[in-house]
Fold these 2 entries.
Entry 1:
Amino acid sequence: MKSKTCRSLAVVLLLFLPLTSTPSGAANLQFPVKEWNHPFKPFRLIGNIYYVGTSNLACFLIQTKAGLILIDTAMQESAPIVRGNIESLGFKLTDIKIMLASHAHFDHVAGHADMKKATGAKVYASKADAVIMESGGKKGFHPVGDYKPIKVDKLLNDGDVVTLGEVKLKAHLTPGHTEGNTAWTTTVEENGKTYNVVFAPSMSINPGVLMVNNPTWPKVAEAYGKSFQVLKSLPCDVFFGPHAPFFAMEEKVRRMKPGQPNPFIDPEGYQKFIAGYEKAYQEQIKREQAGKGGSN
Ligand SMILES: [Zn+2]
């Protein structure tokens, strides 16, 4: 009897353990993670920048004369899609030299640890997000899901420039969504013209995050406010974001036609993207101040 009970207990434990110990932890279940993970055919966005993410979780590959830079790796579950996308474009995983991130949430960096192993690339991250990445998503003012801890090779400050070959990417710290949320800027050339590119970060407010009297980050609203100012000040012709709908990826890729202007050149879209999130942020503050609760 006793050993049978023990066995049943073991079975129950086994059933539950994977849920809490998978790289994408149970907290993630508040997000539509399956919906985010449909395969998407990789393609060239503009110039030397390629889309290698899933249907929703954007990952960007930048080709340089000295190898490749990868921004974001999506979820652990996305790894086969992202690797397959990179290889189907004819790139070699081992040519990835530097891995960057938009921010240290599981849906953008959970693939980092394995990708680093497969490529030997160096992981660069803002100081504040490196703390979260090295804890496997457990640290930070509002953890949303854990993942395999990532060893960060280089810590970045605001304004630091990452160089590989002829490509330079500048880090602009835009804290709020995470403490080390980062926008990346670069330039790209296409058809003899040079464009300013912004890889925008996430500016949404996650469910349950308070802007007023936040116990784990009292000045979070101030941080968001400053970050909106930073983002609005960046010169931008082409913008991308960590979730494909942020920059209407699917709609724009459908409009890509040879001989036509590249639909990803969308300076107005960038300003609208920022303004939309800034409005949501201001409305949440008003709701909270009126005692009507936090985010939706
Ligand atoms: Zn996020």
Entry 2:
Amino acid sequence: MDDARPILNETAVRWPAEGVTRVPYAVFTDPEIYALEHKRLFRGPVWNYLALEAEVPNPGDFKATLVGEIPVIVTRTADGEVNALVNRCAHRGSLVCHDKKGNKKIFTCAYHNWSFDQTGALRGVAFRAGVKGQGGMPKDFDMAAHGLERLRVQTFAGLVFGTFSDEVDDIEEYLGPEMCAYVTRVLNRPVKVIGRYSHLLRNNWKLMMENVRDTYHAGILHLFYNTFGLNRLSMEGGIIMDPRGWHHVSFSKRAADDVSNTDYENAKLPNMRSHLTLADPSTAEYYPEFEDGITTQIQSIFPTFLLQQIQNCIGVRQLVPRGLDQCELIWTLLGYEDDDENINAIRHKQSNMVGPAGFVSLEDGAVLDFVQRALREEPDGSSVVELGGSDIELKTTHRATEGAVRGYWRAYREVMGL
Ligand code: FES
Ligand SMILES: [Fe+2]
């Protein structure tokens, strides 16, 4: 690790004395914090989501991905092993792989033709012996010492995770038994990719991670949800977190809606009296496929991974920082390998709810832009995260709480040392 650059070792940002019920705006706007995140968080004791095993099913398959802004290649070797390699040439630092996906045994750098295999081992150095007996690499040049940097890789339920840390627990311990159970509730059999979205957002990446844990906004901001009864806080549901409070899952059961509930009526949400109807009601109809009655499950794994079941719209989301005040949300929509044409068509139709122009999710991009624009000039300010108190309750049977947001900031503070 490069500890020589003082700017990466220090930050003037101090967390407010109130703890995780306050979030200093500076964590969304301070360039030193952003640099520290790559050192302490993305290269720190966390498991980063990289890819689906279904995206690299065959020997030689590869997929480009990112950990923070660090470019990474996920590969599958001839013996079926999944590897993750930093996509940075060991010679002079060029990107080695420019394709998003494909199948190849050898990755060759365009700059001086050094080549690497699927495990990252250096296989070839152009003009290693020089030209006409002159020049070339030193005789003691050690090929084995100049491979691509490798991440530690583990898979769970078809998800590929990678870490730069030797210390972090194995992935199942990192997730904890509750999170594992909710991951495998959705990823309960082999999946296939049925579509992708990329959403470029004009906000710091952590505002989106707060947003996905913020059950408070879902039944308020997202008019499609509550107008057409897909997800309301008045439904039976809850939030569960792992024992450390780092990861979360929220769920709700549409059949258990209690919209006449006076608390919800008293909230006077403007759209609740809407007389809007859908020209095609099947856009929002749930096709029963989960026996437990859960119609929406949103699960986030610290730091940047999200698994969703919104009715029959199943998918994963990977959040990638794109600089201090931009990020990219990459959605990969899934079906099961044994889906028939009927459920396949239902999943495609429901995919209109998500993505950059989704009936449900377009408001997130808009509102997070509002936040970033407004807090930019107030580095000493902080946001308030007190709904549901100041604790990180590991299990609630309601969703009128920002406890999962507080859990995110607990994890962030631990990893960042703030
Ligand atoms: S930078 Fe890759 S071969 Fe020189
Ligand atoms: Fe949202």
